[in-house]
Specification:
The complex is a heterodimer of chains A (349) and B (97). Chain A has 349 residues and is an alpha/beta fold. Chain A has 2 domains: 91 residues, Gcn5-related N-acetyltransferase (GNAT) (Aminopeptidase, 3-Layer(aba) Sandwich), CATH 3.40.630; 209 residues, HUPs (Rossmann fold), CATH 3.40.50.620. Helix content of chain A is 38%, strand content 22%. Chain A has a 7-stranded mixed sheet with strand order 1-2-3-4-5-7-6, with helices on both faces. The chains are: A alpha/beta (349), B alpha+beta (97). Chain B: Its main location: cytoplasm. Chain B: Covalent carrier of the coenzyme of citrate lyase.
Chain lengths: 349, 97
């Protein structure tokens, strides 16, 4: 019977042995930033020999690799089981894993549900509430079956008149617009602040509903490259998973037939994302790309707003912002600056 | 009794069963069972879980059970542990045992 031990990756010897074990199982090439983001790493030992490993980061299971022992699947099950117990103790009753296609069946045997898959990766979830519960418990979605429903997913960091323009267009062309605000908390404006500013900025549009995107829409689990600088191929397969999850689960459950996105002249990551959405969503969901709102010849972007905050040039972007967001930034200016000083990246998304 | 939070008990190792309980407002006790022997013993496993939860006077719950060949006594023990965690009870419920 193998036993579980904590692996402390700050110890160089431990880290090297762990990396070598992962490499021997075909897992390599992750950045130091990705390794640093894990909350705990465990090793499964048979005597002094490392026979399995796994890690947790937030509610995500990562870096899982095992040697097969005498009983097929036993080591794998023990590692996953330990990680699940740790996640539950940490208060994460819903968990996700992003893994290679050959492990899909192994995770299926221990109660995971496949959310989306591509040739190079699979995204699965376990625990509660699962995606069906998340979607059907959104308030007010019960009446969407017989209506024309469109969806928009936005980070809104912060909410600008550009976002508002996109929503207005969708609201005019459809019965209902579901706006999903990215829940992952890795942006200059916290997820609660972004949510609040989107709600405030859209309060007068009666056929618009604002929801948190949860773990399912551009979350750190489905699309880490949105938040971490990554190579193009990584971005491409992560966005494919995100797009398929939307197409296979979100759209059919909520009867969404259109998705609106802003044209993307500036952010490289988002440009790839739009491109992948255009490939993956039709014909089930129609993708509508809306040209960006321009203000006095400049494209309205949240990136520019964040830059203006950092450079104390707020007045230059006043015309980009609805009064609610403008007021919020005025009221919280000192705190936002403090976050930037502390190293919050403002150039990403 | 109302379940307060999602709770888990048990492992995925051989001869064990992993039980996850979460709150539901209606619909009774709904069990989603994964088991290699579901076709032979599925009904029996569900009955043990349902009876145990009924002993706690839990009327509505979502149950996810991943069975790895657990005996009835193990199923009962894991269900009790999950129920006590979900109900945030620290004292053993003697009448259920």
């Amino acid at each position: 019977m193998a036993d579980i031990r904590d692996l402390h990756l700050r110890v160089p010897g431990v880290r090297q042995a762990w990396l070598a074990f992962l490499a021997a199982h075909g897992l390599s090439g992750f950045s130091d930033a990705e390794i640093a983001s894990v909350d705990s790493v465990i090793g499964l030992y048979d005597g002094d020999r490392l026979v399995g490993t796994g890690a947790i980061a937030g509610n995500v299971l990562k870096f899982i690799a095992v040697d097969e022992g005498d009983t097929p699947g036993a080591n794998f099950n023990q590692v996953v089981s330990e990680l699940q117990s740790r996640l539950m103790l940490a208060g994460h009753s819903h968990m996700m894993v992003f893994t290679k296609p050959q492990y899909e069946a192994s995770f299926g045997h221990v109660g995971f549900t496949t959310l989306a898959k591509t040739d190079v990766g699979v995204l699965l979830e376990a625990g509660m509430p699962g995606i069906k519960q998340y979607l059907t418990q959104l308030p007010g979605v019960g009446d969407q079956a017989a209506k024309h429903v469109a969806a928009i997913v936005m980070n809104a960091n912060p909410f600008t008149r550009g976002h508002r323009y996109l929503v207005e267009k969708a609201a005019a062309e459809n019965d209902i617009v579901d706006v999903f605000v990215v829940s992952t908390d890795r942006s200059l404006f916290t997820s609660a602040e972004r949510m609040q500013l989107v709600q405030a900025g859209l309060a007068d549009l009666k056929n618009v509903r604002v929801y948190p995107g949860g773990d399912y829409m551009v979350s750190y689990a489905t699309f880490p490259a949105y938040f971490l600088k990554s190579g193009d191929d990584v971005i491409r397969y992560q966005t494919t998973l995100d797009a398929r999850l939307f197409r296979n689960w979100v759209a059919p459950t909520l009867h969404i037939t259109k998705r609106y996105v802003g044209e993307e002249p500036k952010s490289h990551t988002t440009a790839i994302y739009n491109d992948v959405l255009a490939q993956e969503l039709p014909p089930a969901v129609q993708l509508i790309v809306v040209p960006r709102l321009t203000e006095a010849g400049t494209v309205v972007t949240a990136t520019q707003v964040r830059q203006a905050i950092a450079e104390a040039q707020l007045a230059t972007v006043k015309d980009f912002l609805p009064p609610t967001t403008w007021q919020f930034i005025q009221d919280h200016y000192a705190e936002l600056l403090k976050r930037i000083e502390k190293g919050q990246n403002i150039r990403g998304n | 009794m109302e379940i307060k939070k999602t709770a888990l008990a048990g492992t995925l190792e051989s001869s064990d069963i992993q039980i996850t309980l979460s709150p539901a407002t209606a619909g009774g006790i709904q069990i989603d069972l994964d088991s290699a022997v579901a076709s032979q013993y599925g009904d029996e496993i569900k009955k043990v879980i349902t009876d145990t939860l009924t002993g706690f006077k839990i009327d509505n719950a979502l149950v996810k059970a991943v069975d790895k060949g657990a005996l009835d006594c193990v199923i009962k023990a894991r269900t009790i542990a999950a129920a006590q965690r979900a109900l945030e009870q620290t004292e053993p419920a003697w009448e259920v045992l």
